[in-house]
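To the wet lab folks,

You asked to see what we're planning to order before we commit. Fair enough. Below is the target structure as tokens, and below that is the sequence we designed to fit it. If anything looks off to you, flag it before the synthesis order goes out.
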């Protein structure tokens, strides 16, 4: 053990690695320290910048609110309002209407004076009217009127919160406890306030909240309820500690957030911005990733340099070994011959000749397999084409014999024509899925003629733009009629619906029949997985299952389960391409 630590007893590899680490580790430590200092500096700069933005936002809101507060007394002492509120009932209809129009003009000016004013109002109890900028109400909302009187400090805390709305109001007379003659109010636009609030953390995808804990109202730039609950707890703690502004890092829901907050005395509220720390330190995180990549690269370079003299033989041999492993993984890639006419050059050339021969054999085998699959597809499709023919003519004959069924017989003939026109068309092996669904609906219409209202059928879901083998949905529906619904004494239900998956598209055919037990469903699934050829072909399940697998692969096809309706659920799973 002692000899291991004696430098002169080290192997060349250990000496080179020791020297490499002596140079590399201090550089890595210095780089890491610079990265951490940069992270802290960026965090502080962004925090201070966000705090400055918050201060600017609150200052703008306070100035706007203060301007509205200073503007309201001009309307409180308005001669028209005073006269209308004191002698309104004595005025003629024309005089009253004229004063209302004059007041509304000033209310329009007041509303247009600030983008944050949603509506300007004047409540006049003597005439029982609420005057708005564009109309007036025939009565006063007493609850709203009472809320406008709750403002005791109109200049220091002017904001009134009522019924999820924000107001700034002033009554006349101002300094009295008796019932006011009238009240002028400006309803603030919550949407405009939210839009202004969203500007604080928009560049970093943050969430900004204006929160008043005393009256329980808030404005949030987004609709994340979890962040709102975190904000309430955070602001409550800071309020209890008497903190008015600052920034700190908080963790919630497994994530770190940069929390920047400031208190507004005029609004009696806190403005809080929550910015995901990952957004703040995004560039630094990238530098960290590159740092670790650089460390890994340095180690790789050191190993390569240490082994350089020994790999004159090892490297070409490992290339050959790796190439054989690629062949085992069905990756027939030739070796680039970058050597002369030595032994390895001869081996590389022999390997490449072998790979070329294998490629030729595989291509020939693959082409033969494709031809066999196409032949199998044609055979399976032709097996389905004459299906259902005999029953159709039998039903048509029965309808023609009945004098009362002439129209139904005519309609049934049209359905038969559409049905057999579809199944006898050999132009393409694959058709759009929408056309397959249309054909299935035609088949259902034919069965509706036979069974009447005894079987209820419902199609749900969208149809994906996808090409599928012909006759993959209708045989499954036919199977449901034949084995589940046809012999039911009670009302039958057939539900056909679709679902888009990550790896493809599925159709579900469900019924409320009771002919199939759980053991039978299990047996059918096992048979489908084994693709047993001796399974009863009249069900159509094996036929459709095998054709879908030939087209998309072994992981697609048909699977069976118990339906929520009580009967059988058949899932037809297609690939996405």
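Sequence we intend to order:
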């Amino acid at each position: 053990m002692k000899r291991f630590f004696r430098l002169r007893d080290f192997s060349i590899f250990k000496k080179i690695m020791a020297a490499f680490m002596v140079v590399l580790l201090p550089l890595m430590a210095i780089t890491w320290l610079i990265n951490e200092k940069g992270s802290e500096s960026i965090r502080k700069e962004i925090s201070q910048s966000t705090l400055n933005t918050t201060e600017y936002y609150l200052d703008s809101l306070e100035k706007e609110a203060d301007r509205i507060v200073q503007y309201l007394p001009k309307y409180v002492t308005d001669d028209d309002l005073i006269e209308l509120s004191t002698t309104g009932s004595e005025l003629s209809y024309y005089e009253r209407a004229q004063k209302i129009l004059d007041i509304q003009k000033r209310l329009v000016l007041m509303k247009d004076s600030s983008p944050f004013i949603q509506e300007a109002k004047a409540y006049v109890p003597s005439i029982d009217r609420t005057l708005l900028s564009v109309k007036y109400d025939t009565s006063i909302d007493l609850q709203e009127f009472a809320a406008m009187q709750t403002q005791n400090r109109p200049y220091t805390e002017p904001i009134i919160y009522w019924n999820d709305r924000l107001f700034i109001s002033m009554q006349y007379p101002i300094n009295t406890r008796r019932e006011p003659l009238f009240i002028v109010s400006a309803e603030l636009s919550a949407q405009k306030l939210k839009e202004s609030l969203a500007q604080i953390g928009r560049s970093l995808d943050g969430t900004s909240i204006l929160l008043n804990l005393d009256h329980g109202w808030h404005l949030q730039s987004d609709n994340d309820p979890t962040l709102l609950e975190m904000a309430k707890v955070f602001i409550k703690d800071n309020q209890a500690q008497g903190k008015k502004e600052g920034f700190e890092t908080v963790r919630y829901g497994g994530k770190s957030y940069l929390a920047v907050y400031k208190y507004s005395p005029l609004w009696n509220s806190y403005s809080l911005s929550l910015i995901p720390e990952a957004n703040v330190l995004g560039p630094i995180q990238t530098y960290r990733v590159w740092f670790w990549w650089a460390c890994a690269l340095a180690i790789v370079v050191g190993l390569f340099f240490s082994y350089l003299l020994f790999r004159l033989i090892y490297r070409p041999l490992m290339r050959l070994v790796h190439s054989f492993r690629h062949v085992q993984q069905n990756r027939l890639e030739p070796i680039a011959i970058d050597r002369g006419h030595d032994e390895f050059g001869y081996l590389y050339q022999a390997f490449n000749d072998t790979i070329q021969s294998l490629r030729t054999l595989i291509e020939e085998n693959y082409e033969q397999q494709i031809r066999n699959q196409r032949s199998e597809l044609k055979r399976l499709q032709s097996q389905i084409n004459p299906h259902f023919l005999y029953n159709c003519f039998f039903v048509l004959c029965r309808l023609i014999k009945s004098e009362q069924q002439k129209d139904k017989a005519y309609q049934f003939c049209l359905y038969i024509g559409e049905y057999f026109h579809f199944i006898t068309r050999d132009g393409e092996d694959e058709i759009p899925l929408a056309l397959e669904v249309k054909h299935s609906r035609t088949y259902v219409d034919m069965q509706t003629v036979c069974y009447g209202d005894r079987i209820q059928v419902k199609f749900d879901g969208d149809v994906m733009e996808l090409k599928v083998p012909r006759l993959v949905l209708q045989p499954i529906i036919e199977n449901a009629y034949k084995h589940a619904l046809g012999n039911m004494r009670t009302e039958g239900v057939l539900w056909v619906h679709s679902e888009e998956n990550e790896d493809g598209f599925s159709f579900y055919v469900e019924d409320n029949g009771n002919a199939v037990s759980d053991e039978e469903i299990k047996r059918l699934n096992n048979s489908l997985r084994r693709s047993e050829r001796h399974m009863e072909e009249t069900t159509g399940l094996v036929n459709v299952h095998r054709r879908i697998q030939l087209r998309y692969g072994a992981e697609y096809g048909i699977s069976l389960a118990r339906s929520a309706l009580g009967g059988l659920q058949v899932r037809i799973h297609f690939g996405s391409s």
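Structural context that might help your review: The two ends are 63 Å apart (CA to CA). Residues 195-282 form a domain with the Beta-Lactamase fold (CATH 3.30.450).

Thanks,
Computational group
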